[in-house]
Amino acid sequence: MQVRIGDGIVPPIGKWYNRSSMKIFLLSAFLAVFPSTSYAAAPSEVEAHILASINSIWAMNFDESQAHLEKAKLVEPEYPYIYFGQANLSWLRYVYVSQQTDPALKKKFEKEVQAAVTASKKWLKSHPNDAQAYLALSGAYGLRARLSTIQKHWIRALMDGRRAVKFTRKAHKLDPELYDALLGAGVYDYYSDALPRGIKILSKLILGGDRERGIESLKIVAEKGNFTKIAAKLLLIEIYTEDKYGSRNTEEAVRIISALKKEFPKSPIFHKIEHVCLYEAGRFEELSASIAEYRRRIKLDWPYYPKKDHARMFVTEGTAQFAQKELELAQKSFFKASRLADADDKPERWAVWGMVRLGQVHDALKSRSKAIEAYKSAMAFPDIWGFKGIARSGVRKPILLDLKVGQLPPP
After folding, report:
1. Across residues 45-69, what is the average pLDDT?
2. To pair with 381 at 20 to 30 A between CA atoms, which of 7, 34, 41, 401?
3. Which of 245, 80, 85 is nearest to 171 (CA)?
């Protein structure tokens, strides 16, 4: 399960963060905590550019989002949400665009998240009752906690998470009708159980947490929130497709994502999330149609439907076939994905995962030598995403012979 601290969604313990570039766009929920009421001492022009920046994120147009933030900065150079938005964009470029393969982008993110913290604190000195500014500060600490969690610096992540929760609660206290402020607390309440055992105990002592309360908070935000409404819906989708404690509801997840797709018909973000929802709901015929449409858009060069996503489509298709025990078909799909692993100058995450999946299918077909070959092929790539341990296990002994295929995205 995935950990989120404060207003930050903190990978990589969870299923969707490191396991799907689609899920990484759930991380853009951070941008959705931009204020839902008028900005304290911020011109309406700044508000307009920030709103446009958020909309560009959902459309996957990072450059346009960046341009709007720069225009906002020309109007009010000290406004904290501008710096928060900039830090979030750097995070998305590092995690989503480079797939964590570019250390220069990581360094840029670290610099900009600190700038967001500094700008928020400076603004609050002259605007001490600005609830939205506290949300910006909370989100900046949440962003930093996310990186610490990736690096497995649990205590540092927990301390930044503590700060994030503190400031999001401060924002809600200052403005009880600022429903956007409930997002961070709700997220932490639900996901606090996802931390490693020792850290989880410490987390409970420091921050508390209540799974059911977290779900109810997210429902309120999904209904009454302003800029966090979509983020809350995506978080509920995750819960409805992953929850192991009685809240799983895959049909509700499909309903929510179907509505979002209608609202954003050209966005690949929601198209990819639809694949996960349909897979988890076992609606394989509809999933096949959705994959076909995604491929059509790649072929027609739709904006933000890159050719590299062919690997993802092959893995998605193969995983659905695997789950239906159509092993020969799954074998062909994973093989096609694996052929794309080094098609670019950097390894392609879904294609390398396709190699691991290919090994698993070979094992299921009792083709042990081919399985070992596939696992070793995956191990030959840099272990950017933590696949090597799974592949190494596959080399040692056959895995998934009982066809418990598991989730759609990579781990």
Report:
1. 85
2. 401
3. 80
Query: How would DSSP label each residue in 102-132?
Result: -HHHHHHHHHHHHHHHHHHHHHHHH-TT-HH
Query: Residue type for 171, please?
Result: A
β-bridge mates for residue 5, sequence order: 8
Q: Token pair for residue 37?
A: 């009421």
Dihedral sign for Cα atoms in the order 281, 286, 288, 292: negative
* CB-based contact 190:218 (threshold 8 Å): yes
pLDDT the model gives residue 11? 28
Report which of 186, 140, 190 is spatially closest to residue 163, judged by C-alpha positions: 140
Left if phi > 0, otherwise alpha if psi is -120 to 50, otherwise beta: which for 74? Answer: alpha
Contacts of 212 (CB under 8 A, 6+ apart): none
Whole-number Å distance between alpha carbons of 43 and 75: 8
What is the CB-side half-sphere exposure of residue 297 using CA atoms within 13 A?
19
109 within 8 A of 96, measured Cβ to Cβ: no
Structure-token pair, residue 237: 């989708």
Angstrom distance (rounded) from CA 118 to CA 37:
23
Tally Cβ neighbours within 10 Å of residue 369.
Answer: 8
Give the closest residue to 231 by CA, choosing from 155, 174, 279, 180.
180
**Cβ pair 141, 8 in contact under 8 A:** yes
What is the rounded distance in angstroms from the CA atom of residue 186 to the CA atom of residue 165?
Answer: 10
Whether the upstream peptide bond of residue 306 has omega within 30° of 0, thus cis, is no
Provide the whole-model pTM: 0.78
- The amino acid that residue 105 corresponds to is L
